[in-house]
Every structure is written in structure tokens, then in C-alpha cells.
Amino acid sequence: MPLRVALLTLESTASAEAAARVLRETRHEVVFLGVSSPLSRARARRIIGRCGPRIIPWLLAEFVAPRLMRPRGTGPLAAAARARGVTPTPIVDINGAFAQAAIEATRPDVIAICHFDQILVPEVLALAPRGGVNLHPSLLPLHRGPMPCFWAAAEGGGDFGVSVHRLAPRIDAGPVIAQRRVPVPAEATVSTAARLLHQAGAELLLQALDDIATGRDRGRDSPPLPYQSFPDGAAIAAARRKGVRLAGFADWRAGRALGGVAV
Fold first, then answer.
1. Facing residues of 30 across strands?
2. Fewest CB within a 10 Å sphere: which of 86, 112, 124, 177?
3. Going by C-beta distance under 8 Å and a sequence separation of 6 or more, which residues neighbour residue 257?
């Protein structure tokens, strides 16, 4: 029997096409589409305050490029939503009363996350009887946190990949349902790597939903490694000396090519 799915995402250059693919191709009924906005001034100030000005090109490529001088209700996610007959809902606070009521009203069986910048409290996760799953662009338990592609590139070794894991109280620490190594060109920027990994991960998330529906989602636990937050200025500078670039003109063009955002 098809699942009732609540899909949560954040539109960015890295993940918009992947989220649209999940929405477009899933065999299950998407009853709720929640979209977080990354562009609040407070959030941008926090990130720049931690990372320093070197993070700005990445912010521009990921979040400004898809939106600049583009109308809302456009882009791949909006098109997929129209085709599925689901209306994107802006999510300011996933744990607030409005979001909880909106999700509860749709009676989802499972919550699926494809790049979402808010942490679900247990009360929200409990709204879905079959729990939640998250697409994370790293080989968990490596590189837990919001910028795994940066840390994978900075550490070297080519440890790039994507995981689908169960949501748990600890961030990016639930049992891994599916995982795949993904080759990333040595010259790829952090933004490009994230885009490649999300695109590869969409297929894993689609399969994970099918496995949950049939009871074949056998996750494996592993001791979580340390959480890695946004890099500070020193870490970005050290990575740059190794040849790691956060974003380039190709990433800006990729964001512009999306043609807009849903909300």
C-alpha cells in the first residue's frame, strides 16, 4: 500500500533538483510539502559571524542565485508540486504550532527530508507513525552536520558519498538504511560536490520509501562520530590552501538555471 509522505526540503542550488525528482518520481502519495527559507537576515548573520566573509560566495551560489530576479512559484520543485497536485507550504518553524497542525492535518505515515535546515523535535516526528528518514550527503557516520561536503573535501581522501538514515534525537545519527559512494572530480567545488551527491541520493531516498512501505528498511547502527558544524574562518582558509573552493561561477550558473523557487 502506498505511503502518505510529508516531504520537507530547503530549495538550494545543491538540492532543488533532487527534491523535485523525489516529488516527481515517488510511487507514494505526497500529502504535505514543507519548504524552509534559508534567507532570513538573522540566519545569514549567524553563518557569516561563525564562518567569516569567505563563506559569502557559497551563500550566494546556493541560496541567492536561484532567487535573484526570479518569480516565486517557478523552478523544478514548483513544477513537480503542480504535477503532483500538492501546494508548497512555507515553514518558518517546523516545531511551531502552525507547522505541527498543518502536518498533523495531512496524516502522514512517514516524514522524508531532502536538505532541510531545521531540527525536528520528537513531538513532530511522532506525527508520522512510521517515523522519518533523511537524505544526508556524506558517508555517515562521517561528516555529520550542515556542510559535510566541505569537511570531506578539506580532509581529503575522496570520502564522498550519500546516506539515507532514520531520524533520531541526535543530528544525523540514526540507523543508516542505504548508502553509496559517489565519485566527485578533484576540481569540484564544495557546492558542485553537494549537487552531485544530492542528485545521487534522490534515488536512494526513493528506494528507502519503497522499503519502508514493504517493511524492508533494515537500518544499521554505528557509533556516531563528532558533529561538525559550519567551518570557521580558519578552517576555510586552511582548506583553501589545499585547493578547496566553496563555490565558483559554474555553481552560480547552476543556481540561475533553476529558474526560480517554489516559495
1. 5
2. 86
3. none
> For the domain 4-257, what is the CATH superfamily, name and number?
Formyl transferase, N-terminal domain (3.40.50.170)
Specify whether the backbone of 115 is left (phi greater than 0), alpha (psi in -120 to 50) or beta: left
Closest to 220 measured CA to CA, from 163, 171, 182? 163
The pLDDT tens digits for 53-72 are: 999 999 999 999 999 988 88
HSE-up (13 A, CA, CB side) for residue 124: 24
- By the 10 Å C-beta count (0-12 exposed, 13-18 middle, 19+ buried), 48 is classed as middle
Neighbour order of strands in the sheet with 110-114: 88-91, 29-36, 4-10, 110-114, 132-136, 161-166, 176-181
What is the full DSSP assignment across 2-23? PPEEEEEEE--TTTHHHHHHHH
Distances (CA, A) of 107 to 32, 35, 41, 117, 180: 9, 18, 33, 23, 31
154-176: per-residue pLDDT in tens?
999 889 999 999 999 899 999 99
Q: Tell me the C-alpha to C-alpha distance, in Å, between residue 10 and each of 39, 134, 180, 203, 219.
A: 10, 13, 22, 18, 25
Read off the pTM.
0.96
Place of cell 545569514: 44
**Structural domain boundaries in the chain:** 4-257
Task: Give the CA radius of gyration of the chain.
Answer: 17
Cell digits for 222?
554505528
Say how many residues make up the chain: 263
* Short-list 195, 192, 196, CA closest to 247: 192
| Contact residues for 170 (Cβ-Cβ < 8 A; gap 6+) | 224
